[in-house]
Amino acid sequence: MRRWRMGAAAFVLLAAMAAGAATAEDRTEALLRELSNALAPSGFEEPVRAIMVRELKPYGTITYDGMGSVIIKNGTSGPRIMLDAHMDELGGMVRRVTPDGFVTMQMLGGWLDMALPGQRWVILTSKGPVHAVSGIRDIHVVPADERTKPFNRDNLYLDVGAHTAADAAAMGVEPGDPVAPDSTFQELANGRYLGKAWDDRVGCAVLIEALKRLAAEGHPNQLFVAATTQEEIGLRGAHTAAEVIRPDIGIAIEGGMAGDQPNTHPDETNAKLGGGPDIFLYDASALPNRKLVAFLRQTAAQANIPIQPDLVTGYGDDSAEMQKADGGAPSVNIGVPVRYMHVHNGIMDRKDFDETVDLVVDMIRKLDAAEVARIRDFTP
User: Fold this and answer.
1) Which residues contact 141 (CB under 8 A, 6 or more apart)?
2) In which region does residue 266 sit, left (phi positive, over 0), alpha (psi from -120 to 50) or beta (all else)?
């Protein structure tokens, strides 16, 4: 009996040690889970702002621009490098409540209409979260000739279970309340993660992990890490943050566009999950600086990091605002590829995330004054 007890105690100790090791090993996954699950549509970024401040504040002084973007400076001399990701996600706002208690919604960001009906949502009211579903007509009553027609967002409404407008008001629902997708993080096979808002919570996590390493290992720059607001409705926080920072070089981190699922056209996007960081050579908002892209390619090659050059026509990102700030700054957008962007559920690959962190760290460590001056030199 005594020997069994000792064996059990040893087993408990080993289990505790293994749990501790797993906790340390999965710290990044836990961060990605927390960021993905946070409810923060454009203009209502407070939950993600709190996470970013908590994670970044050990590495410098936190300041804010007038749009609520979080800015932290690490390093006291050298080029001014701006490393950016946006905190907001696609969502909506309560427009009005009907007499019978249904809720209409103003969409925030670039939703596909077909992705809206039959989905779960959370209304963030002054009295707490109210869960809802976007209604959809039943197939048993929809005429056959209408079943394949596109959905019109003007017909969208949310059902919160209310009987009347007064019932919804008692729940706290009122015009202007933010609405976020209701979709939680799930680990899939092969190091892939399912969740909402990878655009751009995956970028926020890259900022955190990269800054931790750069603060520990050192770098030759004044590094400004910016977690920006309202990107999905016009790159607004990046504009004001870049005016504050006045970068010499701008690097945006985004959820990239994976195109390796069925029914995609080869010219829509070149990236695939597991193929490495997605480097944007063109999007609807920005052309990256060619010297900076060449520097990125060289840095990736030296570190054996695979990269995926990409061109996406219907896409915009914060690098567009950085490259226009304070007379102009060479800028580039780097993405962690994501399948199923701008809907309730997306999939990312942990390998792509880790390689993006590695690439960003290597780039910033090599962007010393001489390299930045070379990239910024446009002399014929």
Assistant:
1) none
2) alpha
Cis amide linkage into residue 200, ω under 30° from 0:
yes
For the chain, how many residues are written? 380
Percent with pLDDT over 90 in the chain: 82
27-37 helix and 46-56 helix, angle to the nearest 10 degrees: 160
Q: Domains in the chain, ordered, with CATH?
A: 30-89+196-375 (3.40.630.10), 91-181 (2.40.30.40)
pLDDT tens string 196-209: 999 999 999 999 99
Q: Give bridge partners of residue 312 from the DSSP assignment.
A: 283
Integer Cα distance of 306 and 278 in angstroms:
9
| Distance, C-alpha 38 to centroid of its chain | 11
Q: What confidence tens digit (pLDDT) does each residue in 251-278 have?
A: 999 999 999 989 888 888 889 999 999 9
| β-bridge pairing 192-195 and 186-187 | antiparallel
pLDDT digits (tens, 9 = 90+) for 289-329: 999 999 999 999 999 999 999 999 888 999 999 999 999 99
Task: Please check whether residue 300 is in contact with residue 376, taking contact to mean a CB–CB distance below 8 angstroms.
Answer: no
Could you give the residue numbers annotated as active site?
231
Q: Tell whether the model's pLDDT for residue 151 goes beyond 80.
A: no
With 0-12 CB in 10 A as exposed, 13-18 as middle and 19+ as buried, what is 329? Answer: buried
pTM, to two decimals: 0.91
CB atoms < 10 A from the CB of 21, how many? Answer: 10
Closest CA to 206 of 329, 28, 369, 341: 28
